[in-house]
Amino acid sequence: MAWIYLTVAGLLEVVWAYSMKQSDGFSRLGPSVFTILTMLASFGLLGLAMRHLPLGTAYMVWTGIGAVGAFVVGVIVLGETVNPMRLAAAGLIVAGIAVMKAAG
Question: Residue 103: what pLDDT?
Answer without folding.
Answer: 84
